[in-house]
TrEMBL record, chain A:
Name of this chain's protein: LUD domain-containing protein
PANTHER family, sorted: LACTATE UTILIZATION PROTEIN C
Pfam families in the cross-refs: LUD_dom (PF02589)
UniProt-listed InterPro entries: FTHF_cligase-like_sf, LUD_dom, NagB/RpiA_transferase-like
Domain LUD: residue ranges: 64-240
Cited SUPFAM superfamilies: NagB/RpiA/CoA transferase-like (SSF100950)
UniProtKB/TrEMBL annotation, chain B:
InterPro entries: 4Fe4S_Fe-S-bd (IPR017896), 4Fe4S_Fe_S_CS (IPR017900), FTHF_cligase-like_sf (IPR024185), Helical_ferredxn (IPR009051), LUD_dom (IPR003741), LutB/LldF (IPR004452), NagB/RpiA_transferase-like (IPR037171)
Keyword Metal-binding tagged: yes
Annotated protein name in UniProt: Iron-sulfur cluster-binding protein
Natural source organism: Paenibacillus arenilitoris
Short name of any one Pfam family annotated for the protein: Fer4_8
Length: 241, 510
């Protein structure tokens, strides 16, 4: 079965490679030039120059991020220390009666010791037991807790990257999402974060790069705004530091 | 089921249906207005909009002009990421590839996030024909799928349905009665589709942009269903128009600046996801197997065509729909195709290669240029509509009646005694149809006009009849003026000038 599947995929690949040439040759013939194999000059790469030079000081970044995130129905808390973040999450969990909590397996979150701070909740740590069905654990969770890899003030966005210890489901399937943002990761422009992916290059990119700018929403029924259609409907951004 | 096959009726007939649907007209107007104002506000707030538009256009122009290089680069990088890449010259080939993958995944159901390409291919029908359930998971798409209709707007597909109709559709699905309340309805859909996400063997997506240098694909969305589709099922299939390419992540900043603002007036959609290959070996989620099907289906025909190549620059934001006075009146269904509005009026005949069959949708435009003004990558859609009409006439598919009418007009207007004769005939003939000074008959050639208005009757004495008298009066009037009258008038002018200097008087524009 597995072999048959592999054989089928190999067959598809050889067909695809043959067709690739025909496809590309058709494009270059239509464009009226020989097949281009060298990288062309791209004088208009990325945002205009005036924009690339634009940067807000930290306090402005915090203010702009906050007002953008609030304007789409998200929540923001400005906290001094990780300890405050731990208390904040524990209090919210108690207030909302969160029974199941799932968190990423990151050292900063280990140090928070949410397990100790929330005795009433069952806290699972992503991908720590190969026997578990982790997507189901995330789907049943009331709270998901993640650490932001980057944040952008201008659009009010947070970036989370996937890895073995960082599930995509943790920021997607729970009802409530708690995002801890170490303040030094908060940038001004989207481009500052995007440039890091160009710099990293193809083989260093994670499978999933997700920008989150607030709660899941839809206006598909009579233009009436609904929150929490598929993803988390309640999202807290905790700016720490 | 969403079906885009062209129905027998003309745009005019479908538009009449739409014009008679009061709710549809109001909903379309309200929504397009909201989106248009949102875009205006967002682009003004962002500032330097013209520079961003120009930058967006340059990036798209550059990529399309070197598409063989960039697409090839994308394919090689995606393969290196572990993606199975396929090519489809036609919609039919893309469908066959999708079915082949579904069979090998022993799929019973496929969850789909919004993809205009899949609408273009009528893929849901095909999947169902081999016993695979296809579930649209975007809230609006899910609603129209249950209703068995086509999307009426690129960005808000169920714009034409009210909450009562939606409650009825969803109640049928639920097996119990749901209240016509947005939160309750969305809550039901969330629960229902959660089960579908967790059950489905295959997740299927479209692709907003594909990044050549890293082989990544990018999705913009608000609901989170595209993230679901790319995270939960074991197999992911992405359908991608061959022109979706941009060179780098840096270029994505420009597209991410233009697309959400132009589509909905948002600074960024709630989710923007970049997917680079299937899950890594040790990852706890994400698809095990990822396929990208690159679809031509008429797109390459635009390459090298100086009049239409820029069509491929389109980023599918829908701003031209919201700006178009014709779309705002008749809504998307009247266009009878997957893509509606100004972009649909040009894209559909171009992709279908048969201008003759789709000729009437190029006529559904007033050529006012609002679509060009709205377009974030400056596609000259109004020019393209003119080119289409020209090609239609050149290919011998012009409107026979219109040509005949134009010839007749030339004959009558070219000779003054002929015109006089026709007018006299008209005055006699109209006695049969004039009621209280206007013509209301909906018979004969006045039917189209009189459906929504009335035609004024020809006056008893026309301008031409009065010309002799007018001519004489004018000639007399040009004789020198009576000196007393002349003096009075000059006095008045002087007085007005004095008043203006003193800041009084009502003629200044100040």
């Amino acid at each position: 079965m597995a072999d048959a599947h592999k054989e089928w995929l190999e067959k598809l690949e050889s067909e695809s490679r043959a067709k690739q040439e025909q496809f590309m040759n058709n494009i270059s013939a239509r464009l009226g030039h020989p097949r281009m194999t060298a990288k062309p000059q791209h004088p208009f790469r990325g945002a205009p120059d005036f924009w690339k030079a634009f940067e807000w000081p930290l306090e402005e970044r915090i203010g702009q991020f906050t007002s953008n995130f609030l304007s789409v129905g998200g929540h923001v808390a400005r906290l001094e220390t990780m300890d405050e973040a731990k208390r904040f999450i524990a209090e919210k969990a108690e207030e909302m009666g969160a029974k199941y909590v799932i968190r990423q397996n990151e050292p900063e979150l280990d140090a928070l010791d949410l397990e100790g701070a929330m005795p009433a909740s069952r806290v699972s740590v992503w991908n720590t037991d190969p026997e578990q069905h982790w997507r189901a654990r995330a789907a049943e969770a009331d709270f998901g807790v993640v650490i932001a890899d980057h944040a952008v003030a201008y659009t009010g966005s947070v970036t989370v990257l996937s890895a073995e210890n960082k599930g995509r489901s943790v920021s997607l399937l729970p009802t409530v999402l708690m995002i801890v943002i170490p303040i030094e990761r908060l940038q001004t422009r989207l481009g500052e974060v995007l440039a890091t992916f160009d710099e990293a290059g193809r083989d260093k990119l994670p499978a999933g790069i997700h920008f989150i700018s607030g709660p899941s929403r839809s206006s598909d029924i009579e233009n009436d705004l609904t929150i929490g259609v598929h993803g988390p409907g309640i999202v807290y951004a905790l700016l720490v530091g | 089921m969403a079906s885009g096959t062209k129905t027998e009726k003309t745009v005019k007939a479908r538009a009449e249906l739409a014009l008679n649907d009061e709710f549809l007209r109001k909903a379309v107007r309200f929504t397009t207005e909201r989106l248009r104002n949102g875009k205006k506000k967002a682009s003004e707030e962002h500032g330097n909009w013209e520079e961003w538009r120009e930058r967006g256009r340059q990036i798209r122009l550059h990529t399309i002009a070197h598409l063989d290089y960039y697409l090839n680069l994308f394919v090689n990088n995606a393969r290196a990421n572990g993606v199975h890449v396929h090519f489809a010259n036609t919609g039919e080939e893309a469908v066959q590839l999708s079915l082949d993958i579904a069979r090998h995944a022993s799929a019973k159901s496929v969850v789909k996030s919004k993809s205009m390409v899949s609408e273009e291919l009528h893929l849901n029908h095909a999947l169902e024909s081999i016993g695979v359930e296809a579930v649209e998971t975007d809230l609006g798409e899910y609603i129209i799928q249950l209703a068995g209709e086509m999307p009426s707007h690129i960005v808000i597909p169920a714009i034409h349905k009210n909450r009562y109709q939606i409650a009825e559709l969803l109640s049928k699905e639920a097996g119990y009665t749901l209240p016509p309340d947005t939160t309750a309805l969305a809550g039901f859909v969330r629960k229902k589709l959660r089960e579908k996400f967790l059950d489905a063997e295959i997740g299927m997506t479209g692709c907003n942009f594909a990044i050549a240098e890293t082989g990544s694909m990018v999705l913009f969305e608000n609901e989170g269903n595209a993230r679901m589709v790319t995270t939960v099922p074991k197999t992911q299939i992405t359908l991608m128009g061959m022109e979706r390419i941009i060179p780098s992540w840096e270029d994505l900043e420009v597209m991410a600046t233009l697309l959400p603002r132009s589509a909905t007036g948002q600074k960024l959609t709630m989710y923007m996801s970049g997917i680079t290959g299937p899950r890594r070996e040790k990852d706890g989620d994400g698809p095990d197997e990822m396929h990208i099907i690159i679809v031509d289906n008429g797109r390459s025909l635009q390459l090298g065509d100086p009049e239409f190549q820029e069509l491929l620059n389109c980023i599918r934001c829908g701003a031209c729909l919201n700006a178009c006075p014709v779309y705002r009146h008749i809504g998307g269904h009247a266009y009878g195709s997957t893509y509606s509005g100004p972009i649909g009026a040009v894209l559909t005949p171009s992709l279908n290669k048969n201008i003759a069959e789709w000729d009437d949708i190029a006529g559904a435009s007033s050529l006012c240029g609002a679509c060009y003004e709205a377009c974030p990558v400056k596609i000259p859609l109004h020019d393209m509509l003119v080119y289409l009409r020209r090609r239609k006439v050149e290919s011998g598919n012009g409107n026979k009646l219109e040509s005949l009418g134009m010839q007749g007009f030339a004959t009558v207007m070219g000779n003054s005694s002929r015109l006089g004769g026709v007018l006299r005939l008209g005055k006699l003939g109209q006695k049969l149809v004039v009621r209280s000074g206007v013509i209301k008959t909906k018979l004969g050639p006045l039917k189209g006009w009189n459906t929504y208005r009335v035609t004024p009757s020809l006056p008893k004495e026309s301008f031409r009849d009065r010309w002799q008298t007018l001519d004489q009066e004018l000639k007399q009037g040009l004789r020198p003026m009576d000196p007393a009258m002349r003096q009075r008038m000059e006095e008045l002018v002087k007085q007005r000038e004095r008043e203006q200097k003193e800041g009084r008087g009502g003629h200044g524009h100040g």
